[in-house]
Amino acid sequence: MNRLALFDCDGTLVDSQANICRAMEACFVAERLDPPGRDAIRQIVGLSLVPAIAQLLPQADAALHDSLAEGYKRAFWAMRADNALDPEPLFDGIVEAIDTLEANGWMLGVATGKSDRGLHLILEHHGLKHRFVTLQTADRHPSKPHPSMVELAMAEAGAAPHTTAMIGDTSFDMAMALNAGAHAVGVAWGYHSAQELTAAGAAHVVPHARALAAHLEAL
């Protein structure tokens, strides 16, 4: 069986919080609603769009959740069309971690709440798309923490649950990993705290990307 290192994207590979917060604020304002605070928005990063909005506005009905989700997409793509997006940098040490894992024989993949289009654009921007053998997004799966993304990634990579590590910065990533029977590996540089990751079942919380390969080998 192959070994698979499956990465979340936002908050794990790239720091995309500024654009996510701006688009979320814009879609609430367009509906004449008070936007949630940025701490609240960061807590839902990683979920698919409609479930994320439902968590931010639980008292609203499904029609408003859907309308806000469409408004979020419009706001995000308008920022992109206007070249108004904030930088979405890779976290420090991510490229080195990918290089080391690949050299150690790990297959690499991504499982994210982003759309196919959004994921491909960010990976192409950073020159990383070719490094991943499997890319799973919200366009083709239920929202995290459903295990569907991990299960299909394992099938595409020829990996098994015991040879797969789901690497992410949120409790949703940890729960998804456990639901698929995979190892749950948290990262300390993202949007949920180490305490939240541990409470959600993380076997390890890695302090820095350069330490990631060593933690995975220890599994």
UniProtKB/TrEMBL annotation:
Q: Which SUPFAM superfamilies match?
A: HAD-like
GO terms, biological process: DNA repair
What Pfam families would the database entry show?
HAD_2
Kindly list the GO CC terms recorded for this protein: cytosol
Gene Ontology terms, MF aspect: phosphoglycolate phosphatase activity
Q: Which organism is it from?
A: Sphingomonas hengshuiensis
Question: What protein name applies here?
Answer: Haloacid dehalogenase
